[in-house]
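Researcher: Here's a chain I'd like modeled. Treat it as a single chain, no partners, no ligands.
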Amino acid sequence: MLYIGSDHGGYALKEELKAFLKKEGVAFVDVGPNRIDPKDDYPEFSAKVAREISKEPHNNRGILMCRSGHGVSIVANKFKNVRAALCWNEQVARAARNDDDANILALPSDYISPEIAEEITRVFLKTPFSGEDRHERRIREIKALE
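Model: Modeled as a single isolated chain. Structure tokens:
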């Protein structure tokens, strides 16, 4: 399953991406928020997505948004089995999946357009992990730190 969340700063982009995902036939769960609240904080929604990914890191994916993308990725990466990657273009998204088996995409809503976010999301969701020995080795090294 794909889980998606944001704070108030990423809310508009989240809503745009939800429409895109529906159009593409991608099933997802929106963990919130369900309205703009300038007082909400990204850790709440990042944690909701990361908890779900942590339970089934090979089957679930996530997308998180905040103004810079940094905050949501920092929170998500606190959870075991989560590899959140801040991506601002298709090449970075492809590398995050191919090389690092990233399972959460973090998007910087203030720095990319909805159209760019859609392309990044498309690449992130369609790119498989390479499974190359060097990439597998590095992921084992990351897991040893958890």
